[in-house]
Amino acid sequence: DIIYQTLHRSLYQLRSFTMANTDFSSLPLSAEFLSNLKSLEYLTMTPIQAKSLPEVFAGKDIQAQAKTGSGKTAAFAIGLLNKLDSQNYQTQALVLCPTRELADQVSKEIRRLARAIPNINILTLCGGKPFGPQLASLERNPHIVVGTPGRILKHLEKGTLKLEKSKTLVLDEADRMLDMGFHEDIMRIIDMMPHQRQTLLFSATYPDEIKNISGAIQNDPVDIRVESLHDNKKIKQIFYEIEKGERTKTLIVLLHQFRPESSVIFCNRKQQCKELAEDLWAQGIHALALHGDLEQKDRDRVLVQFSNKSSSILIATDVAARGLDIKDLSAVINYELSPDPEIHIHRIGRTGRAANQGLALSLFMPSEAPKVNAIEEYQKTPVRIDNTSTLKFRENFKLSPPMVTLCISGGRKDKVRPGDILGALTASSNITGKQIGKIDIFDIVAYVAVERSIGKQALKVLSEGKIKARKFRVRKL
Predict the structure, then answer these.
(1) Number of neighbouring beta carbons within 10 Å of residue 157
(2) 412 in the Ramachandran plot: left (φ > 0), alpha (ψ -120 to 50) or beta?
(3) CA angle, 192 as apex, 194 and 209 as ends, to 5°?
(4) For a tag site, which of 75, 112, 114, 254 has the least CB within 10 Å?
């Protein structure tokens, strides 16, 4: 009995300790900050947050490896917000990201987390956007700057961004920044920052280059690893061997067979993305391509349409898709296998999240068999290879997205808000709120998704009516 009671008490204490360590209230955060976290449904810490936040709060440098969707943005954002002095109007934290999409996503998440702190100014600085508005924003002395290395470096060299008082540097998706050739820019940026700072390095993979840059810029960093493999039990993964010239034809049959509501198709090259999108459109399949040659406004438009369910298929390269946080993704399709098995795992990890089942489909030619072998070795399980003869081509098949997007020629600078658009659509028509989807507001433009069945009606309502007592041009994408 004594042994049993001792074991029972020890297990209870261990469970209590574990629960405390995954509860945000175990961190030295204000009641207002904790309340905001709860309102955002941050109820317990994810593994990367539980392992890294105590170290961040202790002021230590960290090098952390975690998969996409692990909650790493909050892992560094909560830490840097906690040490921020909102009354000190100087840039106190810099977050470097590899792509504009990831920088925008990180900025939005930090703003959400900072709602409990009054007067926090967060600025995003990325290439592809004019310098003028960025210069005006920098005059207001942002507390936190999030951006891509190239544009950050340009502002530093021009003297329009000053980092002398920065306390925290975050390298988000550091492996991808190095892959994209930003090593030199990153080192030049760091040379313009204080030596006494906290440096937080987050990476999905851990190549030798990451170890080297960590050794050069960090002070005795804490090494944090979170299991990088995704839960394969939730992802149905099937490979199909094809012959030369059959790739696009087989892809179309896959879409007929599985009919995914939303899917990301990965290509290895930009030109491949463009050509495949054209081929699918020719087959009457609504598909959009995301790659590095797009201007910012076009990239925004592509991502808006895919995220609001106005397009069922997004074709992307690994670089363009890095950092995209797309919920409820039905399928990932590898039009061509990545030469890196770890990248393959991160690709397919975008499906099968939360409580959802995922689907990952991959095409390969006999000459690519070594890539399949590398994936099997990396994930430590054999893959399922099916014959393409098992696939069925469905007559009169259409993969139509459920929504359409309307583009409005007014945005944040016109003080247009989502509620204004919602009100304009529902006030004087029989359109209901349930028929209206995601609303995205940008500086000079806004997008609203509506059910496809009411697309023409909604376009007429907005074109002939007013938003905030003003007329705006409206068109369907």
Answers:
(1) 12
(2) alpha
(3) 95
(4) 112
Q: Report how far residue 47's alpha carbon sits from residue 62's, in angstroms, rounded to the nearest whole number.
A: 15
Q: What is the pTM of this model?
A: 0.62
Residue 132 is encoded by which pair of tokens? 């003028």
At a CB cut-off of 8 Å and minimum separation 6, what does 203 contact?
63, 64, 65, 171, 173, 174, 175, 210
- Round to whole Å and give the CA distance between 284 and 280: 6
Identity of the residue numbered 347: R
Give the C-alpha separation, 148 to 105, whole Å.
Answer: 12
pLDDT digits (tens, 9 = 90+) for 352-390: 765 677 899 999 999 999 999 999 998 888 999 998 888
End-to-end alpha carbon distance in the chain = 72
Cβ(329)–Cβ(263) under 8 Å? yes
Distance, in Å, from the CA atom of 35 to the CA atom of 31, rounded to the nearest integer, reads 6
Percent of the chain with pLDDT over 70: 90
Residue 196 CA: distances (Å) to CA of 13, 103, 165, 383: 39, 25, 10, 48
pLDDT in tens, 432-469: 888 888 888 888 999 999 999 999 999 999 998 888 88
Question: How confident is the model over 281-340, as pLDDT tens digits?
Answer: 888 888 999 887 788 788 889 989 998 899 989 999 887 776 566 666 889 999 999 988
What pLDDT is attached to residue 457?
A: 92
